[in-house]
Amino acid sequence: MVIKIIMLIVFFGIMIGVGFWSAKRTVNVNDYVLGGRSVGPWLTAFAFGTSYFSSVVFVGYAGQFGWKYGLSATWIGLGNAFIGSLLAWLVLGRRTRIMTQKLDARTMPEFFGKRYDSQPLQIIGSIIAFIFLVPYTASVYNGLSRLFGMAFSIDYKVCIIIMALLTGVYVVAGGYTATALNDFIQGIIMLFGISAVIVAVLNGQGGFLNAIKALSEISADDVAVPALQGGKGLLASFFGPDPLNLLGVVILTSLGTWGLPQMVHKFYTIKDEKSVYTGTVVSTFFAIVIAGGCYFLGGFGRLFDDPAIYNANGSIAYDTIVPQMLSTLPDILIGIVVVLVLSASMSTLSSLVLTSSSTLTLDVLKKTVMKDMSEKQQLVIMRVLVAFFVILSVVLAFNPPTFIAQMMGISWGALAGAFLAPFMYGLYSKKVTKAGVWAGYATGIGVTVTNMIFGYIKSPINAGAICMLASLIVVPIVSALTPKMDGKYVDEIFTCYDEVVTVKRTHSLEES
Hints:
By secondary structure, the chain is an all-alpha fold. The chain has a single domain, classed as Up-down Bundle (Sodium/glucose cotransporter). The protein has helices spanning 2-23, 29-34, 41-52, 55-69, 74-103, 108-115, 119-152, 156-204, 208-216, 243-255, 261-268, 273-298, 321-326, 331-365, 375-398, 407-428, 434-454, 460-481, 487-494, and strands at 219-220, 231-232. The chain has a two-stranded antiparallel ribbon with strand order 1-2. Helix 4 packs across helix 7 and helix 6 packs parallel to helix 16 (407-428). The longest helix has 49 residues, at 156-204. The model has no long low-confidence stretch (mean pLDDT 82).
């Protein structure tokens, strides 16, 4: 217990210290929201990765999908790495940085407002982001509380308050710079922590080969595919016992990052060309280790079948599977796990509250009731709103609505369904219209909300994946059938890609 407490105290001290150090370097809105667009490649890459993966993934998703799909759940982690990280950087990274600087856009809703010359698109986009980010923020606490309860036997609410206070202090003080620096530190902890935990858990099962053998002997009696029910070896197979639903999870958790405001925001802050290359490689490697490691570890969940993971009605409490797997580890490793999941959760939480506060300040208040806000006033309001969002998420986490457990899937589906297509197409095509963007908003939110009410798509995960894919089809179709935007206005925006720059010979073999 002493070792675990000391590790936490050191961790807390570093996080707060970084926050106050960063506060001295945060003097205007661009510094607070974007780090002055001068954040280095490693910090940007780790900020992207650590915002991607939280306790929801490590505890909730790894436990749930590892139990359902066995080792094939590792495909989710690989999809996160190659679609959610590598392709996201290659497709969106450079173009996002160039166009958002041209438009002087600091948030995703502000991008929509300026790219499509529509203040209503900016305001409604901000409201959508606020509505679906705050409940997701509350869900981040759940996995952390499970592990704190196992390691320290302390109350769930105490865990929430500690984490909220700590995150609030350094985000309020240092903004994006503090968040990025702490994300880097937290990312290093996550990389070493997940590696140590996987080795320890497999050793507890007699090693990797014995664990694979034991898993292959379990029959898949509870899978959704009738033809595969009762099959032995499926939980250790290449595609697992339910490949179609597995594909839905891969699409939602991988393609979803392309339309999440807190993820795309990282591309706004890229410093230079080197940051693009380094960020692409480092964030992909990070995702392979963290996401791949989490889902791979969760794939062995059925080897830890125990009465403790069942609810009173006999159903499985998925959030208890990973804590049950870790409960037999030595104290020093449990301490590492707690700091690991605390790091993952705080990095995601800080990104969410910073995104929520900046978009509400810049996209709603400044555009409606406080149009004449000075730079100093904007900074003060954003800091106040960070504290407000942290408190609001704590209140929600204390008394969570019944749907909070599925809120990550619902949140990702709604946000990415509404924003992904208008954002990505807006970077590449001059043909997207305002009506096309409104159609994207309506598709993402409409499918999500109606499915919550009527439940015509049983899985919130599959519903979210369908939202994104539908939006990618709807936006260009509606744009082709509706009035085009002013050609001169759009052409002027796209001139940012035509600027000629001179590069060093190390970057190009061309003579000119």
